[in-house]
Amino acid sequence: MAGTCSMLCLIVITLFIPPLGVFLISGCGVDFWINVLLTILGYFPGHIHAFYLEYVYYDRRNRDPLTRTAQRPAPGVYSTRIQNGGHHAHSPTHAPADRGYGTM
Fold it and tell me: In this structure, what are the phi and psi dihedrals at residue 37, rounded to the nearest 5 degrees?
């Protein structure tokens, strides 16, 4: 329920100020500045970009970690936080190397 509430709050914030919604999910990166530029050029393009980033963020957030790392990056998204759905990127190839032979 907490995820649904935060998603609805983010949508309401994005309706009024699209760059603020992007800032909350990606931080102060390339996606944020692209959204600021699009919002200055036209309020509607800023909304389209912000809602696209939020869709990618919440879609990847709800996926299984193994399928999230195996999928291709979303086009037009430059933030790794959005690409990973807010989760830290874990490489499945490094996980077995961390444990030695015979350790539990």
Answer: -65, -45
**Which residue matches tokens 């077995």?**
96
Using DSSP, state whether 72 is helix, strand or coil: coil
Q: Residue 96: which residues within 8 A CB-CB, separation 6 or more?
A: none
The pTM assigned to this predicted structure is 0.77
- The rounded radius of gyration (Å) of the Cα atoms in the chain is 16
Are the beta carbons of 45 and 36 closer than 8 angstroms?
no
DSSP conformation class of 74: P
What digits encode the pLDDT tens for the residues 59-99? 888 887 777 667 788 888 888 888 887 776 654 544 444 55
How many residues would you count in the chain?
A: 104
90 and 68 in contact (C-beta within 8 Å)?
no
